[in-house]
Amino acid sequence: MTYSIIARDRDSGLMGVATQSQAFAVGASVPWALPGYGVIATQSMGEPMYGELGLDVLRSGLTAEEALKALRVVDPHPERRQVAMVDGRGGLAVYTGDACVGAAGHARGEDSVALANMMASNDVWDAMIEAYEGTDGWIAKRLMAALHAAEDEGGDVRGRRSAAIMVVCATPSGRPWHDHQVDLRVDDDPDPLDRLDRMVTYTVRYHQVVEAFELALDGEAERSLEHLGDLEIDVDEHPELALWEAIVLGRAGRREDAERVGRELERVAPGLAEAGRRFADVDLVDRELVERVLGR
Fold it and tell me: Lowest-pLDDT range, 123-127, 133-137, 228-232, 277-281?
């Protein structure tokens, strides 16, 4: 009743899983991910054991093939399941039970696995692999290309409702909020892929600006400016990003640019400007800079 793709990027080591379904809140049950150890998709008549225990056994050192085989042995109804796993070393495993509702099947790529059931066409899973492996760049972009390819082949025969994507790092850093590069869900929407696309695009910009802001707070003004790069922020569209941009510009000595962004922010979102002024109250940013950029 769902289509999914899991993959590991051999250059970066990043691992990801993406899924779409007519079912409500597919992101709550199908995708599972643990930085450094693996990602899993469990669907059809999904059994969460494959996700939760699957990640545990991958962390214990089992390969994806070994983990999937072990869990199928203790599953009272493996014929109802459709599961795929990729481990931290790039090993892939996939299984489609005989009781999965057609059209159902899976396909393997060099570094990816697509799996689907209750589809409008038997071409869905092959199209997903072709799209993923034929798209360059960041793994999240490639995973989204695979979901769109599934839709182009008819997708879920029942329609569309929810979608989700996760991308985790190759090596755990001990800082989970950094190790999960992408963790996004659309639970109930008439066009979940379009909305998820916009969220994936936004998350790149969001994390880029937040990291620049944190560098600025830590006194690394030049690095923060370099991290911000040539990112263009539309204050009307994303005032929350403009607030952090104004502080970065101010700390880096770009006072005129910072004041210009501050004035636009006050016009568009005075509540955010006020929040920025409160940074001075807890010594996050010096008061003179805050008052110059955001006013008193």
Answer: 228-232
